[in-house]
Specification:
It is a single chain. By secondary structure, the protein is an all-alpha fold. It has helices at 2-12, 15-24, 33-50, 53-61, 66-83. The longest helix is centred in the middle third of the chain and has 18 residues, at 33-50.
């Protein structure tokens, strides 16, 4: 059920959405990081959602700044805990 909702949301996701979300959460992305995050989401959302999120996020760690990566992990954990 949630898979369908996520897929539909991702069809509408844009780089601008990623920039706005980052800024709303106090994160300033480095140039090009919005595209890296977008590509990561599109390619890895199922692994993050149902699989080994730590393993998935390691792929992102190699491509983003330490500050951005740490902020992503912090937000992921915060929102994951709210869902439980």
């Amino acid at each position: 059920m949630y898979d369908v909702l996520i897929k539909e949301y991702l069809k509408r996701l844009s780089l601008n959405d990623i920039d706005k979300f980052a800024l709303k959460n106090g994160v300033t992305l480095k140039p090009g990081e919005n595209k890296i995050i977008y590509d990561f989401i599109m390619q890895n959302w199922q692994e993050v959602y149902k699989g080994d999120s730590k393993k998935a996020f390691l792929k992102l760690k190699e491509k983003t700044s330490k500050e951005t990566y740490d902020a992503i992990i912090k937000m992921f954990n915060m929102f994951k805990d709210k869902i439980k």
